[in-house]
């Protein structure tokens, strides 16, 4: 599955299939949440949250690709990400784009 954030695939003709999307709500465990809370007192990167968001983006992307494949698509173009806090220590990440079938130009 080709996944790009541009609205075309160089050298390919595209046929739009539909919207592809994937989302996840993810949280860290209580122990890591407490440690990150203490880290805010001294400053610096909250690595546990960075890892959580990277993992969530990867899962949302996989779910978007699976959604596109279920529609018979070869690629997802114009991919975007959105995120929002659901509660402290938990975030929703959504990946979405246009599912397309490819052919030679």
Q: Can you put this structure into words, describing what you see?
A:
- It is a single chain.
- With 105 residues, this protein is an alpha+beta fold.
- It has one domain (2-104): Hypothetical protein apc22750. Chain B (Translation Initiation Factor IF3), CATH 3.30.110.
- Helices cover 35% and strands 44% of the residues.
- It has helices at residues 30-42, 47-70, and strands spanning 2-3, 12-27, 75-87, 90-104.
- It has a four-stranded mixed sheet.
- Strand 3 (75-87) and strand 4 form a beta hairpin.
- The two termini are 18 Å apart.
List the helices and strands and how they pair.
Layout: E1 2-3, E2 12-27, H1 30-42, H2 47-70, E3 75-87, E4 90-104
Parallel strand pairs: 1-3
Antiparallel strand pairs: 2-4, 3-4
């Amino acid at each position: 599955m080709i996944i790009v954030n541009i609205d075309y695939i160089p050298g390919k003709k595209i046929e739009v299939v539909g919207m592809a999307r994937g989302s996840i709500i993810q949280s860290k465990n209580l122990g890591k949440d407490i440690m990150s809370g203490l880290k805010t007192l001294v400053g610096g990167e909250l690595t546990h949250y960075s890892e959580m968001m990277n993992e969530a983006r990867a899962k949302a992307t996989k779910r978007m690709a699976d959604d596109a494949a279920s529609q018979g698509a070869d690629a997802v173009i114009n991919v975007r990400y959105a995120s929002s806090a659901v509660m402290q220590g938990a975030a929703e990440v959504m990946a979405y784009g246009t599912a397309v079938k490819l052919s030679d130009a």
